[in-house]
Amino acid sequence: MESVVSELEGTLVKDPDPFSYFMLVAFEASGLVRFALLLILWPIIRLLDMFGMGDAGLRLAIFVAFAGVHESEIESVARAVLPKFYMDDLDMEAWKVFSSYDRRVVVTKTPRVMVERFLKEHLRADEVIGSELVVNRFGFATGFTRNEAGSIADRVSMLFEDNQPDMGLGRIPSGSSFLSLCREQSHPPFMTNQDRDRQLLRPLPVIFHDGRLVKRPLPSTALLIILWIPFGILLAITRIAMGLLLPMWLIPYVSRLFGGKIIVKGKPPPPASGSNSGVLFVCTHRTLMDPVVLSTVLQRSIPAVTYSISRFSEILSPIPTVRLTRIRHVDAEKIKRELAKGDLAVCPEGTTCREPFLLRFSALFAELTDRIVPVAMNYRVGFFHATTARGWKGLDPIFFFMNPRPVYEVTFLNQLPVEATCSAGKSPHDVANYVQRILAATLGFECTNFTRKDKYRVLAGNDGIVSYTSFLDQMKKVVTNFNPFIH
Fold first, then answer.
1. Using only C-alpha atoms, what is the Rg of the chain?
2. Cα(175)–Cα(55) distance, rounded to whole angstroms?
3. pTM above 0.85, yes or no
């Protein structure tokens, strides 16, 4: 069995400086005050590094980011937030070399808890060697770390006992002592051994992630975020007030003055007439703003069925909301009553997904009407995500409108022909799968068979039903290029 030992910082991930990941922990686990304090200390950390005292700077960053934070909160951030940013920074050439070996070990200078989940479950690492956070008896991190069993080189040596690792991956300037233990060494830029190409694996994608920040907070980005927040709060209040006070037809024109933009493609259907039941707009679910944007584009108020938005978001909503119970027959009656009154919007995924994937569509909508208009919705924001699973959901609309230039793309597809509906003998699941596929194709997304329960099980770390590793190992079975699924 051939083995490889690789550095994480500057090798498997491109950035050799882990400071931005400590900033993420500070923001997501503690909030803006700790985030700002760590940024203020960044010049000192950089000076220590320049004068050859990088270890002292690293310990200072770790102390400020973690001191007083509960261990469960740190694990939550490491599970739900950090993997997305590590994956975005992944060096694919280093990954190709790393993945071609049978036994894979990663060495990191950050606390192991930050990276272990990402490395083992997305990069298939077998072992992770890093420092350990010291936690007091109440479960709070002290901000200090310890290196178990001596230096990194000693721990690598103990891990392999009398054997030598076949390959060591690391930066030349880093002077990583473990590299001298390896039979061969490789440094960036990496060249993939063509003889080993047949063994290359694909890193398992990050489908579900959480957190408010869109971009990794490098010092310059973090400074912009801090400076923008006071203006962003005022802008959010102004935008929300406009949505509540102005007539629907006027909002698209006024929103442009405040940086918002809506791109509309396709031709929406006319309003429901008195002789017909309403149209059911079946939308992809990117943020809680999807039905509001739909109503803005149609220039009329379209009620939306919801599952779990906060009461505060319902109060701020400029459109009527119909809260569902997740009891099938009760929800079916509610939707039928609303369709009898007029048009209605529904997001069959049941929860948002930030990545270019669509979750499995609930088939309930297909049972209730044949007047189905698929609507492909997507969005772009600069600073803040509009939905979160970990934080207070009542802040979701505030964070969305705090973005300097939020952009929404709305694409109306043609109403489903009768032969594609349940009236032609199609099963509700077939109809739901068909709508999922054509919406995914429109957006350039991939269909999955994952559900709302899968998302929250992953983000909450509840491995009692299915471990996350085995969950992700099913990717080849459940991610497809627009092929139908069996529900």
1. 25
2. 13
3. yes
**Count of Cβ atoms closer than 10 Å to residue 283 Cβ:** 22
Using omega within 30 degrees of 0 as the cis cutoff, is the peptide bond preceding 43 cis? no
Query: What's the pLDDT score for residue 42?
Result: 97
Backbone angles phi, psi at 104, to 5 degrees: -125, 125
Strands across the sheet containing 321-323? 261-265, 407-412, 372-380, 280-283, 344-346, 304-306, 321-323
CB 135 within 8 A of CB 71: yes
Distance CA 64, CA 41 (A): 9
Strands 407-412 and 372-380: antiparallel
For residues 350 and 364, what is the distance between their CA atoms, to the nearest angstrom?
11
* Amino acid at site 345: A
Other CB atoms within 10 A of residue 5 CB: 29
Indicate if the alpha-carbon torsion angle 471, 475, 479, 480 is positive or negative. Answer: negative
Contact 215, 121 (CB under 8 A): no
Burial class (CB in 10 A: 0-12, 13-18, 19+), 256: exposed
- Which range has the top average pLDDT, 229-233, 368-372, 423-427? 229-233
Structure tokens at 143: 């901000």
- Two structure tokens written together for 361: 């569509």
Q: Which of 310, 303, 382 is nearest to 340 (CA)?
A: 303
Our CA dihedral for 297, 302, 305, 307, rounded to 10 degrees, sits at 50
Residue 107 identity: V
**Residue found under tokens 């700790």:** 34
- Supply φ then ψ for residue 261, to 5 degrees: -145, 135
Report the alpha-carbon distance of residue 476 to residue 146 in Å, rounded: 39
Using alpha carbons only, what angle is made at residue 223 by residues 217 and 225, rounded to the nearest 5 degrees? 70
Percent above pLDDT 70 for the chain: 90
Nearest to 206 by CA among 89, 305, 302, 319: 89
SS3 107: strand
Structural domains in the chain, sorted by start: 3-199 (3.40.50), 219-478 (no CATH)
Residue 185 makes CB contacts below 8 A (sequence gap 6+) with 167, 168, 169, 170, 179
Give 3-state DSSP helix, strand, coil % of the chain, rounded to 5: 45, 15, 40
Furthest CA-CA distance within the chain = 83
Q: Which residue has the tokens 């995914």?
A: 440
Q: Which residue has the tokens 């030598």?
A: 164
CB 100 within 8 A of CB 200: yes
pLDDT at 476: 43
Burial pattern 187-224, b for ≥16 Cβ within 10 A else e, equals: bbebebeeeeeeeeeeebbbbbbbbbbbebbebebbeb
Question: Checking DSSP bridges between strand 127-135 and strand 446-447, what pairing results, if any?
Answer: unpaired
**How far from 329 is each of 322, 349, 351, 422, CA to CA, in Å?**
15, 18, 20, 18
Q: Which two tokens stand for residue 92?
A: 């694919």
